[in-house]
Design brief:
With 151 residues, the chain is an alpha+beta fold. The protein contains three helices and eight strands. The chain folds into two domains: 81 residues, no CATH class; 45 residues, no CATH class. Helix content is 20%, strand content 29%. A hairpin with an 8-residue loop joins strand 1 and strand 2. The protein starts with 7 loop residues before the first helix and ends with a strand.
Length: 151
């Protein structure tokens, strides 16, 4: 029926590009056999800020205080995914933009976006009043623009 995945590298790639994923985690109650399963949303808002949770319940979040000298964000993410036995639903269609598994510098992100045809546009209506809004697009195999997200 559904094909779940434990490919945490691929999941990390997707959330680093702004995608949000759906998954399931194990949890336990004290003095109970468990495990129980809960549906979760997996998303990354910025470096060292990854949410794995639902309805205000965090199951495997990555936060800035999780940073350690010997651990990359990807390693910390994979470690937390394994701890809560995260299984996620991969997209049924190939992702428009998937990049290598690693932490990215700003230059690497720009190079990846250039290679993958991701176009950034500023919303003109916001240019004069407050921070500008960027809209990210990519192109399909026929050259049609596909909206990715707003940052």
């Amino acid at each position: 029926m559904y094909k779940f995945s434990k490919d945490y590298d691929h999941l990390y790639q997707l959330i680093c590009m702004g995608h949000t994923a759906t998954g399931f985690v194990d949890y336990y109650f004290p003095d109970d056999d468990g495990p129980y399963r809960d549906v979760v949303q997996i998303k990354r808002t910025e470096a060292w800020s990854i949410n794995i949770g639902v309805r205000g319940m965090a199951y495997g979040d990555i936060m800035p205080f999780n940073q350690k000298d010997d651990l990359t964000e990807l390693d910390a993410f994979k470690q937390n995914c394994k701890k809560c036995n995260l299984e996620w639903l991969p997209p049924t269609e190939p992702s428009a933009a998937v990049s290598p598994s690693k932490d990215y510098t700003a230059a690497e992100k720009l190079e990846f976006e250039r290679k993958n045809g991701i176009v950034k546009r500023l919303d003109d209506s916001d240019l004069g009043c407050g921070p500008a809004v960027e809209h990210l697009y990519t192109r399909d195999d026929k050259g049609k623009e596909i909206y990715l997200r707003t940052v």
